[in-house]
Amino acid sequence: METFSYFPHTEGDVRAMLSRIGVSSLDELYGDVPEDCLFKGEFDLPDAMSELEVRRFFEGLQAKDVPVKVFAGAGVYDHYTPSVVPYILSRSEFLTAYTPYQCEISQGTLRYIFEYQSMICRLTGMDVSNASLYDGPTAAAEAMMMAMASAKKKTRVLLSEGLLPNVVKVVETYAKFHGVEIGHVTATDGQTSVEALRKELAAGDVAGVIVPSINKFGVIEDHAGFAEAVHEAKALLIEYCDASALAVVKTPAEWGADIAVGDGQSLGIPMSFGGPYVGFMAVKKEHLRKMPGRIVGQTVDRDGKRAFVLTLQAREQHIRREKATSNICSNQSLMALFVTVYTALMGPDGLRRVNALSSAGAHYLHDRLMETGLFEEAFPGKPFLKEFALKPRMGAAVLQQKLLDRGFFGAVQVADGVVTFCVTEKRTKEEIDALVSAVKEG
Amino acid sequence: MRYYDKLVFELSETGRRGWTLPACAFPEVEVPAAVRRSEPLDLPEVSEVDVVRHYTNLSQMNFGVDTGFYPLGSCTMKYNPKINEEIAALPGFQALHPLQPASTVQGALEVYYEMDKALAAITGMSRFTFNPCAGAHGELTGLMVMRQYHMSRGDYGRVKVIVPDSAHGTNPASAAVCGLQVVEVKSLENGRIDVEALKPLLDDTVAGIMMTNPNTLGLFETHIREIASLVHAAGGLLYYDGANMNPLMGVVRPGDMGFDIMHLNLHKTFSTPHGGGGPGSGPVGVARHLERFLPTPRVIKRNDGSFDVEHDAAEAAGQVSGYLGNFGVILRAYAYILMLGKQNLRQVGRLSVLGANYIKECLKDAYKLPIGGVCKHEFVFDGLVNDGAREGVEGATTLDVAKRLLDFGFHAPTIYFPLLFHQALMIEPTETESKETLDAFIEVMHKIAAEAAEDPDILHNAPHGTPVRRPDETTAARNPILKYGD
Amino acid sequence: MSKIVEGLLYSESHEWVKVEGNIAVIGVSDFAQKEMGEITYVDMPEVDDEVEKGDSFGALESVKAASDLYSPVSGKVVEVNEELEDEPGKVNEDAYANWIIKVEMSDASELEGLMDAAAYKAATE
Question: Domains in chain A, please, with CATH?
Fold first, then answer.
């Protein structure tokens, strides 16, 4: 019998267990499987590798990637990860633990989730947060379903044109199958138009409206009048936000929103080619019962000690089954731990500094690019934070290739002839100046 | 485990900080007042050492697979290899932005492409998407593919999906999210699908059947071929919930059994860590005729051998998550598959089934076994044979057994699922546990059964040695305190 | 032994009805509250919602379970017991003293299909 480091069984162990069970071979344990279901061939997989070979294999794959300086955002931000965070995440009691259903031996997980929920509430200004969702786009889809569940007779949800394209696509996909009609609210001059919103609401039958706090053009939106209009139409206002930016821009609560959703990736989570990230959702108190996902609550144990438990589980799929608010089972627990530790380290001042540095760098790049004479303003006068839109005279494709040839990833196309750049606290003056030189070259 | 009762908010002191950042090299720009945050940002201010100590102490109130045995039925708590962690942390992969041009991420795209082939080889399906972030997400995606297939054929009337009454709650919930009505099919006494009860349910309003094999009781659905023919003949599709894939690893392939669509849980079967409840990954695999309905974005290989990303496809069900998938999780699973190789893959299922049957045979004298015979990777007990109930003393329940196990350094099995048995205790050891561990567990379970028979109050009062004991869940639900300061 | 009150009508799904003119006052029986265990939340409809006989109008939730409530009659909801929002445990304390919703009946003949106390007692024994 071949041995393998992940299988502790010796031949003697196997024989003893087979004997106790009363069968003579492992194959006999599959005696109830129809013969034609058993796979008799050879698996089309490589031979087992040693750790050394696995490491070499992946380093080889990694070498096929071309390192670039990231000057793009579009929903994923290259913010710095403090060393403490991955260190804490690697603790095996956090990493290899299961969902905290047995609360007595899961107080670690339950407490950090309670802290996470608390931090999300303070960032968004809302009353209650859940224990996290998969990512920003699916969190928006869950918010859409919540709006529909809260307004049983309505059939429409409105999406701002300013939302990131992947958010729109995911919400539209869920809507298609869930039986929801999606309406669109146009963006004018780089921000969601309140006139267009009022017009769509007037057409009636709207359960919810999803608008971006900072839109795909990088513009920080002004939502004055939105909540009034949406609430008058008896619909829910849903703000889609960047978690890190909430330290310095108006919160969903300040805009009068019912639900706040977004992605917590900007709180130091590595870009990691698309995931894992962490979706967040926080709501006003009155919407608590319709909120999907796990929630941790505080209580006391039989000795009167403060203790934490998964609570309000009667909303969830394992109890409500098809009547649950959602089918979601897991959260992104470890990533919630990530943003909790990050936020604990950064505190209010650190978060403000991250945004200040990113914004200063972005405005510097913006000004230097405009100085080249090779760009037009896309939305003159509109405020931006760390991401901004410009119209390159040479066209988006040409610009993108120019940058790529010199090792820069930027100028993401967000509309016809409009591209965005993003600067975070990781980009140095040298890098920014080099990008500008690259644009001017040739 | 020592009781540590702090929350990070309680360690906060104005003026403390745990961060360092470079000085600003440019003029700073204020956010205009109209859109600037004016409510205070009341987050904790804590020094770095306090953050490290706090979360380290919190971790010591937790139990992981690395701590001890975790026989949670239907969760497949196998060993999480550490080489996986190193691969996922490779800086070259961590630094990749998901929207980078394909020419700069050929290595990362190759990971997706090769994983697709590997999972197809293991499961007998034709092609996989890695977009779903978890098992339930995979179920939803798979059902979207099912509906998209029927819609593409103009078959809009197929709005029902059949689900066994023993199914996990995510199955009917995913169906409901996907706009499908759930129709339950009854199980026989032995827990298997009643094929005679299935037949009358199959008509042209049925999109398909959602099931798992082995079922949630750990029993192989021996009539799977018949079920597949019946469903296909009625024009429906077969969906395989891959939560119970572990016993099939290296032995049986869902594609060969007739399944058209399936999902896998990388965080169960493929050893990626559970992380306290995520992140996971729920890749969805389909038979060839359904490939074009898979969601976007998708990784493709061009004729010149290079890889690219397809963002739009006319017949795709849609987009189900932000980007290509939980890349960090997929890297871990890929490393695991390479370590297993084709040789060791064959033993995963076999050894998992060995361990489960061994525990079952050793404990069936003390715990009620409602369904006898050979099981697969997991099985269900229905409470104690002798729960010690007597005049004035309530018998020990499954919950009591679970809590008492915590005192002995074991994580409890899954309790009160499946709903078919009122005192259900579902045990799944996995293939990475030694005979010594299984024997130790068996010994403790016997001890607990003896305690129950003698004096059930020992169990009623358990756990005795954990940091907290039987938190009041009723008050937690009646008067929810869901954030610090509530 | 569950408590059963005379003068009320009962449904198979353990709701009771007290008829007050054209209004059906609806709650759950002692049997139902015992089955649920400690009730943590009562999910109720809104005033002016329409209900149909046999359809679910809400649910009782406990820590580990949820049980749908089925309307014994059709009509319009005219009142919901707001006390239960903050104190769902009142249903456990006295299932008969704590009604859940009041419905203005659209078809009083539907009451004929319900059981009286004696029939309900026999059905739950």
Answer: 19-59 (no CATH), 69-80+348-440 (3.90.1150.10), 84-340 (3.40.640.10)
